Amino acid sequence: MHIPDGILPVPVTAAGYAATAAITWYSVRKINRKPNPQAEVPKASLLTAAFFVASWIHIPVPPASVHLVLSGMMGAMLGWFAFPAIVIGLFFQAVMFQHGGLTTLGVNALIMGLPALAAFGIFRLRQLGKNSPGRVKTAVAGFVAGSVAIALSVALFVVILITNIPADINAGTERAAIITLALSHVPLLAVEGVVTAALAVFLLRVRPRLLDGV
User: What is the rounded distance in angstroms from the CA atom of residue 86 to the CA atom of residue 112?
Assistant: First the structure.
């Protein structure tokens, strides 16, 4: 779901950068309001590294292949740290792996960062109720957060591409290719949900304090 350079018109890429800058600023503002923002930097760094290398783990889904995104896991585990962490990860993926482009960095950040923030909100729902969230609640919240994040990313990816198909190519063929690519990500919803749920339950068992902030 990395949109490369040269696909989107300049106004769209500029709007993507503007929106990403605004959301990053707001996220940093929320982070700075925490009692000790530096305390979560190691966790954010570790998960940013995981997000960075995840694009190399390909899962064959004929006729295409998909790779782990981990945006839902980022949102569930990092909260407001997730959006700037994803921007950093996408930048290095574009520079080092040529996954996505620099002109489309803002748009790609929105495609993966906004669903990560949605996953953050979903994961926090496990705290509803009188009792502290147990394994079942945490696993369910983690699975839903991971799955919904991918579904939202795919939806944003499809909408942005289909509404900006260049006039000099066959729109019908391009539209069919985009839909096929989007459908190939359906199995990834379950995979990302399981990965997020497993990590959340593991942290709840061995280091529950790491989940306290989200």
Answer: 7
State the Cα–Cα distance between residues 86 and 108, nearest whole angstrom. 9
The one-character DSSP state at 133 is: P
pTM score, whole prediction: 0.90
Ramachandran bin of 100, using left for φ above 0, alpha for ψ from -120 to 50, beta for the remaining angles:
left
Give the rounded distance of the alpha carbon of 121 from its chain centre.
13
Q: 138 CB contacts (<8 Å, ≥6 apart)?
A: 126, 197, 200, 201, 204, 211
Q: How far is CA 29 from the centre of its chain?
A: 20
Cα 20 to Cα 16, 62, 68, 145, 176: the distances in Å are: 6, 33, 22, 21, 29
- Work out the mean pLDDT of the chain and round it to a whole number: 88
167's CB contacts (< 8 A; 6+ apart) are: none
H helix intervals, 8-131 = 10-32, 41-54, 71-78, 82-92, 105-124
Phi, then psi, of 66 in degrees rounded to 5: -125, 170
In this predicted model, what pLDDT tens digit does every residue of 2-30 receive, in sequence order? Answer: 888 888 999 999 999 999 999 999 999 99
Distance, in Å, from the CA atom of 191 to the CA atom of 185, rounded to the nearest integer, reads: 10
